[in-house]
Amino acid sequence: MADAHTGSKRPLSPHLQVYRPQITSMLSILHRMTGVVNAIGLVFLSWWLIAAAVGGEYFEWVQWFFGTWIGMLMLMGWTWTNFYHLCNGIRHLVWDAGYGFEIEDLTKSGFAILIASAGLTVVAWAAAFLS
Questions:
Q1: Which residues touch 22 (CB under 8 Å, ≥6 apart)?
Q2: For 32-44, how does the pLDDT look when each residue is reduced to its tens digit (9 = 90+)?
Q3: Contact 121, 80 (CB under 8 A)
Q4: Helix (H) or strand (E) holding 100
Q5: Which listed residue, of 59, 69, 76, 108, carries a Cα 20 to 30 Å from 92's Cα?
Q6: How far apart (Å, rounded) are the C-alpha atoms in residues 20 and 13?
Q7: Residue 59 and residue 47: Cα distance in Å, rounded?
């Protein structure tokens, strides 16, 4: 009997190099990544709230930072990750109810959450700037 370490060079389980990327797998990975980004965004939200509690010059400095191009880019990205995570979470709830498992449905719902999250981000930012 061959030793497991000296046997074939094949992977022991499916690997990303073996499979062609599919929308479902890419969106699953993206869902996990947006969860991490959302957690990091909560640190920045906490920073802003603490600065508001401290008040004065420190709050003005934090407000200035979020008004810079990098701050605005971070806020826009965080807005999109929140909407993406929300839309994909709703998609998972539909799956939990037993619907949407046909390949065509999976593809359509995947593209729908990408479009919906982008659209909701644009609407949220337009509402913020137009108000």
A1: none
A2: 999 999 999 999 9
A3: yes
A4: none
A5: 76
A6: 15
A7: 10
